[in-house]
Structures are given as structure tokens and as C-alpha cells.
Amino acid sequence: xxxxxxxxxxxxxxxxxxxxxxxxxxxxxxxxxxxxxxxxxxxxxxxxxxxxxxxxxxxxxxxxxxxxxxxxxxxxxxxxxxxxxxxxxxxxxxxxxxxxxxxxxxxxxxxxxxxxxxxxxxxxxxxxxxxxxxxxxxxxxxxxxxxxxxxxxxxxxxxxxxxxxxxxxxxxxxxxxxxxxxxxxxxxxxxxxxxxxxxxxxxxxxxxxxxxxxxxxxxxxxxxxxxxxxxxxxxxxxxxxxxxxxxxxxxxxxxxxxxxxxxxxxxxxxxxxxxxxxxxxxxxxxxxxxxxxxxxxxxxxxxxxxxxxxxxxxxxxxxxxxxxxxxxxxxxxxxxxxxxxxxxxxxxxxxxxxxxxxxxxxxxxxxxxxxxxxxxxxxxxxxxxxxxxxxxxxxxxxxxxxxxxxxxxxxxxxxxxxxxxxxxxxxxxxxxxxxxxxxxxxxxxxxxxxxxxxxxxxxxxxxxxxxxxxxxxxxxxxxxxxxxxxxxxxxxxxxxxxxxxxxxxxxxxxxxxxxxxxxxxxxxxxxxxxxxxxxxxxxxxxxxxxxxxxxxxxxxxxxxxxxxxxxxxxxxxxxxxxxxxxxxxxxxxxxxxxxxxxxxxxxxxxxxxxxxxxxxxxxxxxxxxxxxxxxxxxxxxxxx
Length: 640
Ligand SMILES: [Zn+2]
Fold this sequence. Notes:
The chain contains 21 helices and 28 strands. The chain has 640 residues and is α/β, with parallel strands linked by helices. The chain has 4 domains: 15-74, GMP Synthetase, Chain A, domain 3, CATH 3.30.300.230; 79-145, GMP Synthetase, Chain A, domain 3 (2-Layer Sandwich), CATH 3.30.300; 167-178 and 187-389 and 581-638, Metallo-beta-lactamase, Chain A (4-Layer Sandwich); 395-451 and 492-574, Rossmann fold (3-Layer(aba) Sandwich). The protein has a 7-stranded mixed sheet. Strands 13-14-15-16-17-26-27 form a 7-stranded mixed sheet. Helix 4 (82-92) runs antiparallel to helix 6 (127-136), helix 11 (272-291) packs antiparallel against helix 12 (300-308) and helix 20 runs parallel beside helix 21. The protein binds zinc ion. Residues 247, 249, 252, 334, 357 line the site of zinc ion.
């Protein structure tokens, strides 16, 4: 048929043309054994790696030329024998790194270097890494030892190392999701809201273009219909190119195992710390469902699949995730590893920013969300605190109030209970307490952290790069630990809890869940609430219908999910300002300073009236220069 030849679009990437281009460039520097793809990343195997790396900047130079991260490996026949390589690596890496373990993965020629200070393993501009690769042929992967030890994070690490070969095999298969082409019958960009529209929970948006289908988040709803609408006609597991996960809260990632259970075999994209936290909270959910006698909708195998299929990317690193979509993650200031997802479609012809959950003020733990982007046409923004009344006090005020309440309760020989999500608020509160102890603002008492909080905190200490500038300079610059084990005691067993509430004196207990909808906090609450000496401090968002929301409203007799009726005689405080979400002021200031200005704004992740109020506010702010929408679940909106 005449004209059909023009169906190919030259601007789209094909693996064959990219391989050809790469081969041409790399061959100028050395002999190429073969080129293939692992997910979105090209892998180049070099015959004589030592000669090839004579030019120290070669890998960075190549990445600049092809605008991609390139994995350079030596020809496997040229690897130095392991014993010899081990000796050589320990010679090259400076002693300050304190290398604890080396794990060689023969089949791919990689070596995991587990060290206390990974900065020294990398070296200035990657000098140490290059030197190892050059002299041994083994490609080093540095892994930082968390300063807080936890058996669960150790197990996750072990799996990560043990499954390295399996992962690379999967990634080779998954590269077809990035580079395979469809018939180019026209360009468009649409969004279908599978969950999280006019509600908080089960965040899940399907982005479709002429060439791709991408899922933005894949969450559960803890209170309400649990799953996103995976049964809408637009959604097809077989044609899904990838899933972008903004952060490791269940309402953004809890439904991932379900997709693997039903046959999805493509990649998940997120930051490195997010991957570890996702595994942690999925394991926690799996155990909790089992303990409460429920039937988990997924198996442990599905969690492993999530882990194996995750491709991690760094902040600010553009990565092709499908033939016409490039993803860049930016810090969102919400929890460890949380990201804003910027998607550049058809070589920048259309750009979309999905905020996920974000905070636009610095906290102790994290810097505020990024707000400058190369291009921006449409903005999908959360609205948890988008209501006209949602002005939250600054963090300094919240911290001051927390310290005052703790001080007063301890002076009355009472116990302080702080319900908190395992990931995010818990660590923020822990840092506040640590700082108050260090500066003698409150007397030192035992601080017990229950549930998954300790494990999640351990993961924080493995990724200081993802934390605030202040913490980075404390940990990486001054070599001082955070979340000192001298201050925080992990609690895992029921007999330990009983001893704390019945026997122990004044103390602080931080325990999930943040809304008192489940978890060990309910036991503490049941035991401590009837005593007026004690205090409960709420620091998180409290969803309608939860015990936390009832306490916020001052209700004095509540029935907790275990069926117990609890008389609330203790004092209940609600401290706003610790939240990881932008409040009304931050949302407006974000809409004001975000650059460039979008011509479309879509409001999600908020109770219906709050999303509507934010819509009115942004409409006023943009004076009609942007179309502002509050989509419905299952609605499909064409952006281009
Ligand atoms: Zn969140």
C-alpha cells in the first residue's frame, strides 16, 4: 500500500540502530566483543579492558555521547582469577573504606564490594572503581553497610547479591519492553485514572502514548475498595511497558505483587532505597495479613518477582523506559527515596510531571521537592492537604510542641506513645528526639521503636545520599552516625511490649500504624490510654473512619480494630507540621514556582472536597492560563 513505508518514525529508538551507533562509537576506543541490553541500559563487553580504560574518562564520555548510562564489562575470558582479584581489590581500595565482604558473581563478571564507607570505593569521579575494572576485569558494585544492623535488611541485601545473575537475565528479556516498536499510527498522550482520583489510596494512573503504556504507581487502599480498577478496557498487562513507583508507601506500591501474580513480567522503575523499602513493607503486609488470619492476595514468590524486576535509577538520571518515553526521577521530599516522576514523551514533544506525594519545605530528614524542569506541559499534583483550611504550622513549631509534650509527660512519670507509619514520620520524629537528647532539651529516657520502624530506619542508614544535605554532611562529611543505637531500642516480641507497658518507667514508644488502624500500636494504646499520666501524640494524616481520626475529634471512648473498647483518659495531642505532604500554602507556592508553567493541571490523591478546593485555588492563581481538572476514577483524559 502506498505510504505504508512511512510508518516508521525515525525519532523512536530501536535496539538495532542503537547497537549499531554504539558499536561505531566504542570501536574507536577498543575492540568490542558484543553489545546487548539489560533493561534500558546498553552493555558493552570489551576484549581488552585494560587498554580501553587507559582513557580514564572513557565511560563518562561514552555515556555523554549516547546520552545513556552504559554498563562496561570485560570479556569474561579475560577476568583475573578470583583469589588474585580479591587481593588486588583490597590493595586498590583505601583502608578508610573498611571493606567487609567481597562477593564475586562469576557469570557476569561483577563483584559486590560491601563496605562501611562506599565513597572511598567509588573514588573521585569513579577513579577507584575504574582502577579495579581496569586491573582485574571485574566490574565493582559498591554496597554501603547500614550503620543500624537489622536481620531483615541483611536478608534483603543477601537476596540482592545472590540474585544478581538471575536479575541480569531478566533485564535482558525486559529490554524488549523498552525498545520494541508498535505500528506508528499517530501520536497521542492520554491518562486513565485507575485509582487515587478523588480519594486517598490505591494511587494508580495509566499513561498511554502512540507507542507505550506506562503505569504511574500501583497502590492499595487501606480503608475502602482495596485495588485500582485493573479491569478497565484500556489496561492490558501484556502491552504494559513499565511501572514507575514514586515511593514505598502501600497506597502507591501495595498492588505490585498482584500484577506479577497475574502474569506481568516487565520492569518497575524507582530509586534504590525505594526498592528496599518496598520489599520491607510488602513483607510486613504479608505477615500482618497472615497473623490476622486473612488470606494474602499474593505469595512470597510474588514479592521476590517485584524485587527481581525492579530497575533502580538515580535522581536526575534520564532513562528511556519505552520507545517514546524518557523518565527522570527527582527528589520529592516525602520519604526516603521518594520521587517526582518527570516523563518526556516523543523526544520532549510533550512533558508530564507526576508529583506522587511531596513536601515543599525542608525537614530534618529530607530536602524539599525539586521544582525546576527542562520542560513541562501537564502537572499531576497531589491534594492530601489541598483544602482551604489545610494550613499547617512550620516544622520548627511542630518539633517544639513535641518536645514540650514529651517533657511534661516524662515529668509526670508518664509514657509517651507516638503512632507513626514505619517509613517517613517515624524517622522524622526519631531525628527530632535524637536532637533534643543531644542538646539536653529533654532528659534521656528509653525510646522504643516497634514493628518495621527499626528495619526501615536501618535502610535509611544505607542510603545517606538520598537524605537531606544536612544529614549527608553529618554522615558522609563528618562521619557521624544518625539514629544512634544507644538511643533507640528495637521491639519485636509481645513479651517485650508487656514489660514496657506494665513494668518499665517513663519512656517514649514509636509504633505503627500511624492511624491506629492496625499493628502493635493498638496494644500500647489499649494499655496506656486509660492512664491520665500518659500521652498519645498523633503526627500523621488520619483517614476518615480510623481510630486516629476519632481521637483527633476528641472522642473519649473508642473501639479499636481488635474489638476492645478503650476509655481514653490520657491526653491526646495532634501535632501538624511533621507531615510529609505539602500543605495548602506549600501546594500553592509549588504551583507558583514550578518551572516552566504547565498548561494542564490534574489534581489527584485527596478527599474530593479538598481536591475541588485546590482546583479553585490553582485556577485563581493561574488566571485561566491553565486547564485545571479533578479527574474521576476510570476517567480517561486526552492530554495531546
Ligand atoms: Zn506517601
